Amino acid sequence: MAFKSDKNILHTKLEIYVESYLSDVDFLIFCMSWNNPYPEPYTTNPDELQFRFTNRIKLLSNNINLCGQAFYGNIADIEIIQGRLSIEGLLKKFIATYLECRIGDENLEWINNKDDRQISLIKHLLSHINLTNINNNMFVLDRFRSLSSDRHIIGDKNPFTDRESSLKTIKNTLSCLPTTKTKKIMIINEIKNAWLLANLKNKFPSWIKKDDTKTILEWLPLQTPFTPGNDFYLLREYNNYGYAKLGTLYFDLQFIFAPDRAELELIRLRKAWSQVKTRAKNQNKPQINFSLSPDIKYILEDACKTTGLSRNSFVEMAIRNEHERVKKTIKEGN
User: What pTM did the predictor assign?
Assistant: First the structure.
């Protein structure tokens, strides 16, 4: 993405290829975020973005120690002029680092840009990146999120915003992670495997589509795990997006980080909903209790298993059939 601007925002004489990067939004964002311990809030406003970028470059140019921290001390190739780092040399250093570390579309070809569920999960997984493990061989995705877990996210943190905005956030965040391109590819593969697992195991989306979606979505907020005090509170700030999306994302995350628990929670939900439907269906039917001898109970259970009918349905059918038979016998006898 590029600005439509012909002005040199740094007001410094630069080589043409260096100056061309000043109109690249992703490059400006990279420069402001790369190894910056105090990044400013994300913005898409062109004027504000250029203003912040200019200040960042001037700050690093005037502070050799701070610039050294940004590039792990590897700044010997940046010319020093009158006690300051050369603006053009600093930009060339950023360009080389940007080209070496950025994540492009070719690294994310497996993402379906029309799949809202997939994009929402990937975007939310960015907040589960454990930065303490980012430069070793351990897995980077972590179930537990620290209070500062979203500082490294470059863009809109809402997992349910539009696809284009979300894809930019995914690419910019991965590009600006303070690690090598090789490690970033490993992280991308880890996220990909997490998505494949969630997509395979999570039956919540297909379940709510098969049933009375409107009624079930009204019922869900009152059920565990969606009630206060459960893990779902991490997504509660997005309540206005509806429980179809929220529930899907919640169970996607659970199947990734706590699959056994997720399976159990989903089974309990489905059983509870089945009971709700049964009660609703039988609310106008009088309840009758009667005792059966063990052999008759066995016959009833065997008949239900053979026919696939519930006990209620089979007993009703048997009574109707017997009633018709008795009436027919009486009629023929007369």
Answer: 0.78
